[in-house]
Amino acid sequence: MRLEWLAMEVMHGLPSDEARVAVKGLLAEVAAHPDWLPDPGGDEITAVFGSQCWVSLVTYVDEVEVRDVGWAG
Fold first, then answer.
1. CATH code for the domain of 48
2. Could you tell me the residue range of the domain that residue 53 belongs to?
3. 33 in helix, strand or coil?
4. pLDDT (tens digit, 9 = 90+) per residue, 21-42?
């Protein structure tokens, strides 16, 4: 997965190491479940939610782009 520049900026802006670890864990979980992703094409943004965080993703033929991440903890 590639972090889009905005998502990378947001990752660095998360309030704690706990938040960054949770988001990275959610990204690993998404990578292990490709059935959670929309069809490739870049037309659909999907949000995946963890217990205290979320990620926003776009799927292309050859990559998954992380557009944004969030923390609710």
1. 3.30.2310
2. 2-71
3. coil
4. 999 999 999 989 989 888 898 7
